[in-house]
Design brief:
This protein has one helix at 6-81. It has 1 helix and no strands. Residues 1-24 form the signal peptide. This is Lipoprotein.
């Protein structure tokens, strides 16, 4: 069996610490990317919601106006026919 020297053990400890620091950096970068992705997705969702709401309100108002015009036209025709 190979005898481990102090220098070799010190080198292993140094490599372990370097690997540990590198993992922390990768984790931090992943967290930053994840938060950015979450924020962008939220903004896209809110923008889509707002556009859909605006379209829905416009459609609702148009349908109400058409219905009101139709009621008035029918009433006008019925009043004239009596």
């Amino acid at each position: 069996m190979m005898k481990l020297t102090r220098k070799f053990l010190a080198l292993l400890a140094l490599l372990y610490l370097a690997l540990l620091c590198a993992c922390a950096e990768v984790k931090d970068a992943g967290k930053t990317i994840g938060h950015t992705t979450r924020n962008v997705a939220r903004e896209i969702g809110h923008g889509t919601r707002d556009v859909t709401r605006t379209i829905g309100h416009g459609t609702r108002d148009t349908v109400k106006a058409i219905g009101k015009g139709t009621k008035e036209a029918v009433k006008s025709v019925t009043d004239d026919g009596e």
